[in-house]
Specification:
single chain; 703 residues; alpha/beta; seven-stranded parallel β-sheet; 23 helices; 38% helix; 18% strand
Length: 703
């Protein structure tokens, strides 16, 4: 019926049928026998050893015993519980069954010997196992038993309730291998397998499900992980090659007097990392191809300065630059800081946001059209149809993940003379290297991994609700020294389901402890109008208010050097990346700064680990790596909305960074010799690239 047995509908696999097939489709996205073979175990249980009952402990994960049935007793109303006592030469154990009682009772006859495998626990002072797996004893004596590594597959409640247990999945995998392994075709060229020392695909699939030993398993895992990451990187790098060949860029060979004027008037030296990044950008601007570069830098590492100098290179080559920020607060902050840097250059810089009045817009629009505005800073207001540039040569996009693709493509279309502008995407959300290679695999990535001199480390403390009086006294002491305080809440309004501190109650509490006669408190949250938000932010930024109570509106880019204390309420509710961003709002001046993580009475183990990590390190990239290990790559701040460009079946960006680096550099080597994969030896690779899985959405360009 099916030419290739891998294409057989999974319902025709022995042991499946229509009902189970429907479950496999909905829960595991398995439609064919081939799909089933690509559902890999996520861990293995070692059944190669047999333990003595006397050595079994309640904390053991899984154990296997070889024991004789001593007695079996049916108890409970309607005989709903089967208790079986088994023994070996070291002691006894109770086995308990609540399902399949008649079958099990008939099978476990007194005097018979079986292998029992399960999770031990202590009940009423006696060691027991509930619903252990039962197997016939090995032939020969127990010492000669070699056992197997048994794969454990991801499952769901629906699968288990529908009778598709791990044991059933193992049986189905065995059937699938017997039926279709002969039709598995190699997906990598022979020269790749030889150079990288990879086992054949048939061997890998057989041993990923039923490893003959641990060596065979590790060879199978390496082959499948390497291939998955290699094909993904091959796809991304091929796109990058095609794009760099196709996209002409505005040639920017000069630096220009404005750049020199700004650079020479800086009150400090650039860090080595900033200088390196500017060199990388300059090389892009002079290449004749369009720049598409991601600039990663921790909070306060000096990305804005790089954006200013890059914008001035564009101006020096007769072009305009725009810097697009996700919020008005951040756009305004950029405008204030950048205007200061531009003072010695004579370059006209303007701000355009949603709250810019019609009267203010007119001269800005005219200046963009006639070229007298060299640098424009703004929000999505920059991409409105009536905004026309005379010669847009550079677009800097801050916190790129906060803009939709459609919004960004409208900016892309405003380039000079039909040539798209050079693109510099900036993010202060540190992205682990492996994730950056995948999410932004067809972008060039620059990293500012050095902090400017003079920035003092922020002291991070983690305290519980009981210490609130001491916290308020500490805040009053800091304010008496002339400092200011941020207080951030995760919620705006009381949530019935979640008993967390919230902004409304928080403001009342703060005002009660910090009376208006002595202290001024400003409040900022997402439900306020732009005017109210701006008024309150300005009150804090100018020093008229000593305390700013806020939601995470202030997470990105708010710069108040005099603020030396950041209090994060219900800190256990935030992810590591967000906590790190918030902490970055303090420590910008010359004074010692503090970040206080307030947590509730009930904190999960994982939340506690996050808070401990925050206290242990200030390095955003280290925190991002840990965050990815804890939460998985798809949930990271800034990437959750887009997910990963492809779903990975076996490789892990958190754990397989070394394999990814090797696969990426090898993919680059293959494309250097054959950029379009047209050579005969790469025919299998070209065929793999045509599959839907590797039709990777482009996360990097703004088109």
């Amino acid at each position: 019926m099916y030419k290739n047995k891998l294409d057989t509908d999974v319902q025709f696999l022995p042991g499946v049928g229509p009902k189970r097939a429907s479950l496999l489709r909905s829960e595991l996205e398995v439609s064919t026998v081939g799909d089933l073979l690509h559902v890999y175990p996520f861990r293995y249980i070692d059944r190669s050893s047999i333990q003595r009952i006397a050595d079994v402990r309640g904390e053991n994960a899984f154990v296997q015993i070889l024991a004789r049935v001593v007695s079996s007793e049916l108890t409970g109303k309607g005989l709903k519980r089967l208790s079986v006592i088994v023994q070996d030469d070291s002691g006894q154990m109770e086995l308990v069954f609540f399902k399949g009682i008649k079958y099990t009772y008939d099978r476990l006859k007194v005097g018979s010997v079986f292998l029992f495998f399960g999770k031990p626990s202590v009940f009423n002072g006696r060691m027991n196992m509930v619903h252990p797996e039962i197997d016939n004893p090995p032939s020969g004596n127990a010492q000669g038993f070699s056992g197997v590594l048994t794969g454990v597959y991801n499952s769901t409640d629906r699968l288990r309730n529908g009778g598709v247990t791990n044991k059933v999945l193992n049986k189905l995998m065995a059937e699938a291998i017997d039926m279709a392994i002969g039709d598995v075709e190699e997906t990598l060229p022979e020269y790749v397998m030889k150079e990288k020392g990879l086992v054949p695909l048939k061997y890998a699939i057989r041993n990923i499900h039923f490893p003959v030993d641990s060596t065979a398993l590790s060879k199978a895992q390496y082959r499948l992980k390497w291939e998955e990451l290699f094909l993904l990187q091959l796809s991304l790098l091929k796109q990058k090659y095609i794009r760099s060949r196709a996209s002409r860029g505005i040639m920017m060979e000069k630096v220009g007097p404005a750049f020199h004027a700004c650079f020479n008037s800086l009150p400090y030296d650039l860090t080595g990392a900033q200088k390196r990044v500017i060199k990388e950008i300059r090389a892009d601007l002079m290449s004749g191809s369009q720049m598409n570069r991601l600039l990663q830098g921790d909070v306060g590492s000096g990305k804005t300065m790089v954006a200013v100098l890059t914008s001035l290179i564009a101006v020096g080559n007769g072009c305009q630059a725009c810097i697009m920020a996700p919020t008005e607060v951040l756009a305004r902050q950029h405008f204030i800081n950048i205007s200061r840097y531009l003072a010695p250059t004579g370059v006209r810089c303007e701000l355009l946001t949603g709250s810019t009045t019609r009267a203010e817009r007119k001269p800005i629009h005219e200046g963009l059209k006639d070229g007298s505005v060299g640098i424009i800073i703004g929000t999505h207001a920059l991409i409105e149809e009536d905004v026309e540039f005379r010669s847009l040569g550079l677009a800097v996009i801050d916190e790129q993940h906060r803009f939709g693709v459609e919004q960004r493509s409208r900016l892309w279309a405003k380039g000079a003379g039909g040539i798209p502008p050079h693109i510099l995407v900036m993010t202060a959300t540190p992205i682990p290297r492996t994730l950056a290679m995948t999410l932004y695999g067809d972008l060039d990535v620059s990293v500012i991994d050095e902090m400017p001199p003079g920035r003092k480390p922020v002291k991070t403390l983690c305290i519980g609700e009981g210490k609130r009086p001491e916290l308020y006294n500490f805040m009053k002491r800091q304010i008496s020294f002339g400092r200011q305080v941020f207080i951030v809440y995760p919620l705006i309004f009381e949530s019935e389901k979640v008993d967390y501190q919230n902004l409304e109650k928080g403001v009342e509490d703060i005002i009660a402890h910090f009376p208006e006669s002595t202290y001024k408190v400003a409040v900022v949250h997402g439900q306020q109008t732009s005017e109210v938000k701006k008024f309150n932010m300005d009150a804090f930024a100018s020093g008229r208010a000593q305390i700013l109570v806020s939601t995470t509106v202030i997470e990105v880019g708010v710069d108040v050097p005099n603020a030396s204390v950041m209090v994060i309420e219900s800190a256990e509710r935030f992810g590591l990346a967000q906590l790190h961003q918030l902490r970055g709002r303090v420590g910008r001046g010359s004074e010692e700064s503090f970040c206080v993580l307030m947590h509730g009475n009930k904190v999960s183990k994982e939340s506690r680990r996050r808070l401990d990590l925050m206290c242990a390190t200030e390095n955003g990239f280290d925190l991002a790596e840990e965050d990815m290990k804890m939460r998985g790559p798809g949930d990271l701040e800034g990437t959750a909305q887009s997910g990963l460009p492809v779903s990975l079946n076996i490789a892990s960006l958190a754990k397989d960074g070394q394999i990814l680096s090797d696969a990426r550099s090898y993919a680059g080597k293959v494309l250097a010799d054959d950029p379009t994969l047209e050579m005969e030896i790469n025919r299998t690779l070209a065929s793999e690239m045509r599959k839907d899985k590797y039709d990777v959405r482009d996360f990097s360009k703004i088109s």
